[in-house]
């Protein structure tokens, strides 16, 4: 339990990056092995400057000393650890042998992963399937069928459990399992908040099916953590990082799915766009979003207008219409 509390506490220090948290953990363990102080006791009493020094924090980054409260950090970590134990939530530290190798390759991997389900899903070939929440019928079928065929061929389908393309992708992998096309539910759902906080609530049944049949729910957020808006952007890097390739099924200009596409390119992973992105109904939605963005002012709206599937295809991303074409 002490190790779980420490893992949660360090994961919750949002002003330290992956490398700083890893260094801090090693320093705390060394201090404990030398018989100086228990890590949790030290965290409760330490000042911000002590934590920053042990973590090797880059002081050129803005200081956030006012946000440091070690005693409160440990209190909340203990609460979260007891919730995790009650709900069967386990943790996987970045230094553990079972930590996904692909995720270690990205620029800022999660310090720890909290999960429910079967870790064997991490050992399979993987593909991320992402897209908009406002999907058209053609894209819904495309996401489902692509994921069904991928799971049937032994791939693990990674997505975000959101309404829309994500849900259709997970359901495709689940259906492959129920149709005996896959030996277990080969899908990983990456959540923005804690894995005890399935969002949207309408997908709780889907989440339960994923867990019960050999799939995996995973998050870098400790149990009890809400799915705040910025965490959805952060979790997109995990969705891209867990797979060797990302397939965007439908994404109007500025869609969050295109952030996942950017992460995939940053990590030197393959990027594909499904033909459903360019079907008539998808283009109607894209044009509506485009007009809405044109009516807005500011650089953010201008960037979103420029960020659309056609731009990625022009830069060399492949367009596919089925898993067979992806696999070829």
Detail the topology: elements first, then pairings.
Elements: H1 2-11, H2 18-33, H3 39-45, H4 48-55, H5 70-87, E1 90-93, H6 101-104, E2 112-117, E3 125-130, H7 137-152, E4 155-159, H8 165-178, E5 187-190, H9 204-212, E6 216-219, H10 229-241, E7 245-248, H11 256-266, E8 270-274, H12 280-294, H13 299-306, H14 309-314, E9 318-320, H15 323-327
Parallel strand pairs: 3-4, 3-7, 4-5, 5-6, 7-8, 8-9
Antiparallel strand pairs: 1-2, 2-6
Helix pairs in contact: 1-5, 3-5, 7-8, 10-11
Structural notes for this entry:
With 328 residues, the protein is of the alpha/beta class. Helices cover 49% and strands 12% of the residues. The protein is built from 15 helices and nine strands. It has helices at residues 2-11, 18-33, 39-45, 48-55, 70-87, 101-104, 137-152, 165-178, 204-212, 229-241, 256-266, 280-294, 299-306, 309-314, 323-327; strands spanning 90-93, 112-117, 125-130, 155-159, 187-190, 216-219, 245-248, 270-274, 318-320. The chain has a nine-stranded mixed beta sheet, sandwiched between helices. α10 (229-241) crosses α11. The mean pLDDT is 90.
Quick structural summary:
The protein is an alpha/beta fold. The chain has helices at residues 2-11, 18-33, 39-45, 48-55, 70-87, 101-104, 137-152, 165-178, 204-212, 229-241, 256-266, 280-294, 299-306, 309-314, 323-327; strands at residues 90-93, 112-117, 125-130, 155-159, 187-190, 216-219, 245-248, 270-274, 318-320.
